[in-house]
Amino acid sequence: MRNDRGRLIAALISRLRDFQLAEEALQEAAISALSHWGRAGLPASPQGWLLKVALRKAIDRLRGGARESRKAAELAHLVGEEADAGEPEMIPDQRLRLIFTCCHPALDPKSRVALTLRTLGGLATGEIARAFLDAEPTMGQRLSRAKAKISAAGIPFKVPDPEDLPDRLNSVLTVVYLIFNAGYTVGPSLDRDLCVEAIFLARMLALLQPGEAEVEGCLALLLITHARRDARLRNDETVALTDQDRTLWDKAMLAEGLGLLDTAMARRAPGPFQIKAAIAACQSQSPPDWPQIVALYAGLTRHEPTPVVRLNHAVALAEAGNPPAALAIFSALEAELADYQPYHAARAEYLSRSGQTTAALDAYDRAIALAASESDKAFLIRRRNRIPS
Amino acid sequence: MQYMLLIYTDASREPAYGTKEFDAMMGGYFALNEKLKADGVLKSGEGLKGVETATSVRQREGKIETMDGPFAETKEYLGGYYVIDVPDLDAALKYAAQVPAVSHGTVEVRALQNYNPMDN
User: Fold this and answer.
1) N or C terminus of chain B: which is more exposed, having fewer CB within 10 Å?
2) Does position A190 have pLDDT exceeding 80, yes or no?
3) Structurally, how many domains does chain A consist of?
4) Chain B nearest-CA residue for A67
């Protein structure tokens, strides 16, 4: 169903070049289908029927507005044959072009995420707003502004030229990863699990843009991480990776992720998503291969020299047996990550291991105050209470 | 679709007249001008004299006020522009990335308002 709606909206946008009009026309066609199909039975190709009716509804809407009359005439000519012809058996899949448009770097990053969830995931504005803790009208305005910019600024509906493809693909994969992370942080309490949405999008990309190592790397990363989902919480408390009950991991999903990572790396076109997937794979080993993880984070830092990547590099260094090097990096990151919970949690852990009890307790207090979920808070409180006072 | 590439630069970060870097920058502009013409996309383009020569005018309560200086005091000022006619934003961004000022300033890309009723 999600595939069908995505394909329909992509087909409509590719013909109408108007996101809002495409959504409204599809909505109207779906309402017509309810009454028509109830009377006349299901058409031979429900998708083809919906596309045809939605195109007619769009032309009607354009004819209604005087300013757009010329556009309506052009469109009627353009889609006329299609709207009057028989119902197509298969709608050509235009979703790849659609996701490149939604994730265009000329749009604000948060709008890219929202627009992708709206058009390709079919989420309602309210669902997206709740996932990002925004008021529904605010999210509605964000979506309208993004759709208006696409048409006013001439953001194209196409797969980018080969020389732009690596950067633009990275922009798309970053959106998919942000959606996954939002689902990971909020947990599966939402009406729509954003982790599942992200995996759906990554699978779609792997299907429509085959042979791309970074797409496979991204899907591998999501699958390896998601395979551990059932082990992440115990009695509503977050469980550290090394303490997880591995029998709860989804072995089929983990194996699929590891297999995809092998396929990706065999293409010899390295990139940040493959490195992140490789890190996730190393963390899945028992015990985790920390020296290898240190080397991978060093590589990732060259692609993404962000404070969060440097923090993770420091944690890996500490786990690999070099806590003084880790604490030195922590000090250097203090200003940039002052409001980042995992920074204070990691610092607390290594301060406590090196016997700096008072500083460790302070760092735990800061982490607990910043915790995003109750389960993270419970985990941090228990860690704090283990420190002998 | 027509786009204006607005070239904002910070005079203190721009190569100084007479240096090799200045010549390289000017060479970059000449090369871009030729490319835009050869590709058939150039509508117009000009460089502006320095911001110290700017005069601003506005009407308040029916009275024209004339002031020395630019519209807003910022670090980067509008130093020139191109108007190009290309199929879409991706094409405009590609030309924008070739403006020499991207290395020390910022190029803002804006679609031109289309007042031709025949295009609506």
Assistant:
1) C
2) no
3) 2
4) B120
Is A46 in the B-facing interface, judged by CB distances under 8 Å? no
Which residue from A344, A350, A338 is spatially nearest to A362, judged by alpha carbons? A344
Contact A8, A26 (CB under 8 A): yes
Structural domain for A184, as ranges: 94-210
A29 with A80, same domain: the answer is: yes
With respect to residue A81, please indicate whether it lies within any of the assigned structural domains.
Answer: yes
Range of the domain at B41: 2-114
Q: Are residues A187 and A161 in the same domain?
A: yes
pLDDT tens-digit readout, A110-163: 999 999 999 999 889 998 998 887 899 999 999 999 999 999 999 999 999 999
Q: Which residue has the tokens 């083809």?
A: A48
**Could you report the per-residue pLDDT of B70-97, keeping only the tens digit for each?**
988 888 999 999 999 999 999 999 999 9
Quick one: A46 and A58 in the same domain? Answer: yes
The count of domains in chain B is 1
CB atoms B93 and A106 under 8 Å: yes
Of the candidates B3, B90, B111, which has its C-beta nearest A160's C-beta?
Answer: B90
Burial class (CB in 10 A: 0-12, 13-18, 19+), A376: buried
Residue from A225, A342, A199, A202 nearest A280 by CA:
A225
Contacts of B5 in chain A (CB under 8 A): none
| A132 and A199 inside one domain | yes
Domain co-membership, A101 together with A197: yes
CB spacing of A155 vs B88 below 8 angstroms? yes
Inter-chain CB proximity A153 and B118 less than 8 Å? no
- Per DSSP, the three-state class of B52 is helix
